[in-house]
Amino acid sequence: MKAKVYWFDARAPPSYVEKGQRLFEEAGLAECFNKGDSVAIKAHCGDWNNTGYLRPNIVAGIVEMVKEYGGEPFVCDTTTLYWRTRITEQDLLKTAARNGYTEATLGCPFIVADGDIGLNDVKVDVDGNFFRSTYIARSIANADAMIALSHFKGHGMGSFGGAIKNLGIGCCSKRGKVVTHLMLHPTLGLGSWEFHPEKCVGKECPVYQRCTEDCPVDAFWLTEEKPYAHRDLEKCMGCIDCGMRRGCGVLVRPLGHEQIYPAAFADSARAVLNVLGEEHVGFINYAIDISPECDCAGHSDNWILPNLGIFASKDMVAIDKACLDMVDESPAVPNSRPFDEGKPGEPWMAGHEKFTNIHAVVISQWSQINAAVRVGCGSLDYELVEASPAPSLRFMMPKFRNHYPGYWDRRKFRLQSLRPDPSCYREPRMTVEELIKKP
Ligand code: SF4
Ligand code: SF4
Predict the structure, then answer these.
(1) By C-alpha distance, which of 149, 381, 171 is closest to 288?
(2) Domain boundaries, the chain
(3) Most buried residue, 194, 221, 338, 344, by CB count within 10 Å?
(4) What is the CATH T-level fold of the domain 3-183+256-386, as seen in this structure?
């Protein structure tokens, strides 16, 4: 049987908030939990200065739905592996609050699911393509169910980011992210990368300070004299940070590894299904504000595609495949990344792969999908079901579902009239012709 993917196009009305709520019902996501269950709503609160992440009111709309169906929701995200603005619980909470993710805006607690420094986790077995177990954030593993809200967009390491990435990276603790990024894998990890310290230019490098300060266990460091760069793999804990600065040629990843890293997301995504139970996880993908990079970046760039709409499903592979298919059918937005000089594969054209060819290196957008199918995360075979418009008052603010707003305030405006003093107005001093002519 084909997996069902429910879809609402991007045009208004209704709003994206309401479309997500409507799809929650159409896709039967309330069946993922029972009354009184604790329901994790996994969302990405965006990095410091990022502007592409899901707006808090979109998430709040799903919080309302979970409450309406009797669940006990909490919204959560996890600490990052690399050293930026969401590295610890405190830093993540500060970033989330600056981006508008607070209990006051979401309507339920916002928590860091892997705790203080990202080690609050549960080891979960998985029969994966690249590993046998990983570490899932404890608050997610302990929940009774989860609704994964994913902003569908590009991703510098995964090619794209959607439901598979939201589970495979977003639900892992910091330690789980070391596993998923394969950094300490015996044959694919940092130990397999070529090391060329002679290529380091020392203090002439614009990110010299970062290379000097960022390794928290002094396993990568610079000295005053040539060769400047040094590393000690015995001490390395696989935080990926030095591996992200490979443009200088000091660290060279073996050819082909860029296709393997996104595939490994699927192993951890499967581990999340293992620990929660497949029937307890639902997915909503928002293919809007489609940036070339992840919301983990401290910027968002021009959107590469027009908004394509909202998708919902109980099948993690089907929902990402449906998004990718629609992405590929669409032409790119002018002056966005696919149009940058030298991009192979003509990614700006309708009918061409959009994410494979827009990153620093070619990363197949199918790698995550193929790996996820192999580990049993879902199906490629899907049916796209277009959502029907909701009754007009169904998703209004609860107070206004039975009576329109004016009904509630009639007494106040009988006591105090809106009518301004007649002397406020004057006869018009400008004609319509004067107003509409180009200056
Ligand atoms: S290792 Fe590379 S990135 Fe780091 S300081 Fe040297 S040249 Fe710059
Ligand atoms: S050497 Fe290891 S611990 Fe240090 S920055 Fe590189 S990956 Fe991280």
Answers:
(1) 149
(2) 3-183+256-386, 194-252
(3) 338
(4) Rossmann fold (3.40.50)
If pLDDT is split at 50, 70 and 90, which confidence band does 179 have?
very high
Identify the residues whose C-beta falls under 6 Å from ligand 1: 200-201, 205, 207-208, 211, 222, 228-229, 245, 248, 250
Please state which of the four CATH numbers 3.30.70, 2.40.360, 3.30.980, 3.90.1690 is assigned to the domain occupying 194-252: 3.30.70
Ligand 1: nearest atom to the Cα of 248? 2
Question: Which string of DSSP letters, residue by residue, matches 45-67?
Answer: ---TT---SPPHHHHHHHHHHHH
Q: Which two tokens stand for residue 121?
A: 């986790």
Distance 244 CA to ligand 2 centre (A): 10
User: Can you give the pTM of this predicted structure?
Assistant: 0.95
Task: Among 182, 185, 239, 250, say which to mutate for ligand 2: greatest number of ligand atoms within 8 Å of CB.
Answer: 239
pLDDT in tens, 233-249: 999 999 989 888 778 99
Residue-wise pLDDT for 10-25, tens only, equals 999 999 999 999 999 9
For residue 205, the CA-to-ligand 1 centroid distance in Å is 6
pLDDT average, residue stretch 77-92: 95
**Residue corresponding to tokens 């990435």:** 165
* Residue 184 contacts residue 264 (beta carbons within 8 Å): no
Range from 52-66, 115-129, 236-250, 416-430 carrying the lowest mean pLDDT = 236-250
Could you tell me which residues come within 8 angstroms of residue 197 by beta carbon, excluding any fewer than 6 positions away? 227, 228, 229, 230, 250
